Amino acid sequence: MILTNYHSHSHYCDGKGSPEQQVQGALAQGLRAFGFSSHCPVSFENQWSMKAGRLDEYLAETRALQAKYEGQIELYVGLEVDFIPVTADDKSASVSVGMANPDEQPLGPENFPMLDYCVGSVHYVGLNQFGQPWEIDGSSVEFLECLDTLYGGDIQTVIQKYYGIIRQMVETDPPQIVGHLDKIKMHNAARHLFDEAELWYVEEVEQTLRAIAKAGIITEINTRGNYKRDLDLYPSPWIIRRMKELSIPICINSDSHRPEEITASFPLAYQAAKAAGYTEVRVLLGGRWQDIAL
Ligand SMILES: [Zn+2]
Ligand SMILES: [Zn+2]
């Protein structure tokens, strides 16, 4: 079996260890290909993105590793890029919000000659009660405070906004890989907010999957919620089954933040992919995206 992982973080953002330590971890865990995808700098202060001034160093260091380890492992240079659209109700923003990527350019590869690929992720939904971008994958305490203060606990409205932003990304600015599709469900562990079988939720997911299928891009099966929080995969197995019906290509990623996490919970992801009927995964090998047997 050929193992790959294109979603990983190092000390350039909120991960632990250097890019070379990641490579050592990937070699020790038997990977054929490994992609660096630090959090792309954003135009406001946050706890986990790379600082804008470090991007050139990141690119130079990871490209040098690509050359150094040639013949041992295929290395690819990417970024996990936030998609943060400016919306009408964001006018009170106390910071500049916009699409966050190195040049605030659309995500297409023609605009990123310095990258091999992008993981496009939504971590922010509008603004919080302090007029700052509202982080949906941080602490549940802060998420729930904002949900109650600004939305009166109305999770349906927030989730519809969340999936709406993912669709906007996919339709206007598609990355190669959609990151952790249903990550917003993680707050259900702190307080039961919704049931994934509710019709409105199924409908949001369905619309989003149709947009992804139309764009022809990859959706990752991301294992981080499982090994970090003992949650299900991102996305949930019922969504993976629907992705298969819509012929959406998958790749299996751990979203590792430490070298030892690079293949964490991979057996669960492979099992879920197979159970959904997938026989192939899409991988970046030999410099091109291709389908190989699961
Ligand atoms: Zn992410
Ligand atoms: Zn990530």
UniProtKB/TrEMBL annotation:
Pathway: Amino-acid biosynthesis; L-histidine biosynthesis; L-histidine from 5-phospho-alpha-D-ribose 1-diphosphate: step 8/9. GO terms for molecular function: histidinol-phosphatase activity. Signal peptide: none annotated. Transmembrane segments: none annotated. GO terms for cellular component: cytoplasm. It comes from the Bacteria. GO terms for biological process: L-histidine biosynthetic process. This is Histidinol-phosphatase. It comes from Runella slithyformis (strain ATCC 29530 / DSM 19594 / LMG 11500 / NCIMB 11436 / LSU 4).
